[in-house]
């Protein structure tokens, strides 16, 4: 007997895995990584106050989380000086991107992104049978003019832009993003992924009225707040757009411990400033290691550094595999010409030392 | 300026909230509940070993969870004596039901459930423009014959059945469920929601080959394992069906702390047995309180009890509101004739005493 058929859209999809997790790689390799610096996780960790709050909440995990994430939305509203009606909390930006695509995209609708940008967004677009149009990066940055031109050409419903960018770490001035809004075609939404915004210089943060209906901004506790494993992200924008998520989201999808941790993390802006300082030092350290090894670190406004190997994608892929085999987990961009780089997450000194020691060994072996 | 239009299906949906959380009610009432016994949460709590495991993991929350939930799936496979390829882990049964509906249902496809059964399933069916057909309960139980007849009549793609049932606490013998499979129309899947199965008698658990392509079973750590706030559920069935989830799920959607907690909870079957005993005692206590107040507790194979008020839905609704006003959170079935009942979660002695004290006061006032 065969299983019942999938619906037509899922039936047409491959069983994509946007990212292979380090645990899977470890099982394949047969040992654990010594330096886990591939997923842009924040090894400087969450605020100790957030850790304590999560510990204290463990006993209460028999209770569902508040499905409205009321307290966290209130705190975010105060932090951003907006209203809680502008904010939806979800299971990381990944989860929110999936909901947004579902909310906006009918089969055949055009969506624009950059070739080499976030694969999970592309996964969601494919998952709802949207038609993805990609424009190339330009000078290792996403290309706002090309994105807008492609959106107008295709009548796109969504344009995705990460600022700062992943996987390159590059960024645009906020004014550039603001100008993009005026270029968008009608009935199109700019998806501004600001996962790394807390690491960016102030001028990279656009000033946009929160009820501007042309943009939705997504942020997360996974990166600067060091809570990737808690799955707490949020989106903010026009209240009618935000209210739309109530039609499609998994209302009881949030972890109670994650909510409590995020609340405590947000309240500890001192820790955030401390982490930001640590990340800036680690970026310099990665750049130093790159230079020592005849490579070049691209400028970064994130907690990772794209290191230009000066060679091609094949070389970079062998380098990534070589590092993995020595216990160093890094990743790299998926498409040329970005894939001449490897992407290294900023981490505490222990991991940086392992990198400094391992990288020349692997390069020599190659 | 208006916001960009939603896609046609979400545009047609109301901003449904399947359940109003107790936190929202508390904010409306202006005080906290003294007895939180309305959401079938398990106040006997998670295994102390699970609590400890979650506490110990809090510091590691900077790492994403393993997107394959490998260790938890392996442990579940051992526990159920099946293969990990038969199992997908997700953000609670709520999340998995949404993914399953997305995987199976195209707009206009027929889906069958019972009138008064789980609203969140209905929410997901509406969310993907499935057409829901409902059959009435029969003697306060879901009606397998009627479900199958309706499925055959409508050419349904999915039939939903919870065994034991929520909101009535009733159950069918496993053999009845097994027989349903032979009655299903072709190309149709039975969604067997076993959220409460650990509280049920052995004979309520059907014996079905794990690769039977006609059924998918869903279970959770939210109820008997006392971890509702951790959002860890799982589905198991034919490996091709389970593999289908890879096409649509949020791969990095699981909380790391939840995974670790679930693993420890599963390993502590002694605690599960202890909780089961406590729940059985609490069921008897609820029945006793019901009797003392001239009402009647329906038999239950779950951690809640449907208490028949002997009156109608209007009365039961006033009773629920009256209890809320006195600090006792309970819920009730949504449709007649089930709505003559109120639904009370089994809880420790403190909550049971509050109930015993409050219920006669509210009844007198009514």
UniProtKB/TrEMBL annotation, chains A, B:
GO terms for molecular function: histidinol-phosphate transaminase activity; pyridoxal phosphate binding. It catalyses: L-histidinol phosphate + 2-oxoglutarate = 3-(imidazol-4-yl)-2-oxopropyl phosphate + L-glutamate. Keywords: Amino-acid biosynthesis, Aminotransferase, Histidine biosynthesis, Pyridoxal phosphate, Transferase. The keyword Manganese does not apply. PROSITE patterns: AA_TRANSFER_CLASS_2. Its EC number is 2.6.1.9. It is an enzyme of class 2 (transferase). Pathway: Amino-acid biosynthesis; L-histidine biosynthesis; L-histidine from 5-phospho-alpha-D-ribose 1-diphosphate: step 7/9. Its cofactor is pyridoxal 5'-phosphate. Residues 38-357 form the Aminotransferase class I/classII large domain. Transmembrane segments: none annotated. The keyword Ion transport does not apply. GO terms for biological process: L-histidine biosynthetic process. Pfam families: Aminotran_1_2. Belongs to the class-II pyridoxal-phosphate-dependent aminotransferase family. Histidinol-phosphate aminotransferase subfamily. This is histidinol-phosphate transaminase. It comes from Paracoccus caeni.
């Amino acid at each position: 007997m065969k299983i019942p058929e999938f619906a037509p859209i899922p039936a047409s999809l491959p069983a994509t895995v946007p990212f292979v997790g380090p645990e899977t790689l470890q099982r394949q390799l047969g040992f654990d990584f010594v330096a886990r610096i591939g997923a842009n996780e924040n090894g400087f960790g969450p605020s100790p106050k957030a850790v304590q709050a999560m510990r204290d909440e463990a006993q209460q995990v028999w209770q569902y989380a508040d499905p409205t994430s009321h307290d966290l939305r209130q705190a975010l509203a105060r932090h951003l000086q907006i209203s809680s009606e502008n904010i939806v909390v979800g299971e990381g930006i990944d989860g929110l991107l999936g909901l947004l695509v579902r909310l906006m995209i009918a089969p055949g609708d055009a969506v624009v992104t950059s070739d080499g940008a976030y694969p999970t967004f592309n996964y969601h677009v494919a998952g709802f049978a949207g038609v993805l149009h990609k424009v190339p990066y330009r000078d290792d940055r996403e290309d706002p003019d090309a994105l807008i031109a492609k959106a107008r050409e295709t009548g796109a419903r969504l344009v995705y832009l990460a600022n700062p960018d992943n996987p390159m770490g590059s960024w645009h001035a906020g004014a550039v993003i603001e100008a993009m809004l005026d270029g968008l075609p009608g009935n199109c939404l700019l998806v501004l992924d600001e996962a790394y915004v807390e690491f960016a210089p102030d001028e990279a943060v656009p000033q946009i009225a929160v009820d501007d209906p042309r943009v939705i901004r997504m942020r997360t506790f996974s990166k600067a707040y060091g809570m990737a494993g808690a799955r707490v992200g949020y989106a903010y924008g026009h209240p009618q757009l935000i209210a739309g998520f109530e039609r499609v989201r998994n209302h009881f999808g949030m972890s109670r411990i994650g909510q409590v941790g995020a609340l405590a993390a947000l309240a500890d802006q001192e820790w955030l400033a401390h982490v930001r300082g640590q990340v800036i030092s680690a970026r310099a350290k990665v750049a130093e290691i790159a230079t020592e090894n005849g490579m070049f670190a691209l400028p970064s406004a994130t907690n990772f550094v794209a290191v230009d190997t000066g060679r091609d994608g094949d070389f970079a892929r062998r380098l990534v595999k070589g590092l993995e085999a020595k216990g160093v987990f890094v990743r790299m961009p998926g498409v040329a010409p970005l894939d001449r780089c490897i992407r290294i997450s900023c981490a505490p000194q222990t991991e940086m030392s392992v990198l400094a020691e391992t990288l020349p060994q692997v390069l020599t072996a190659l």
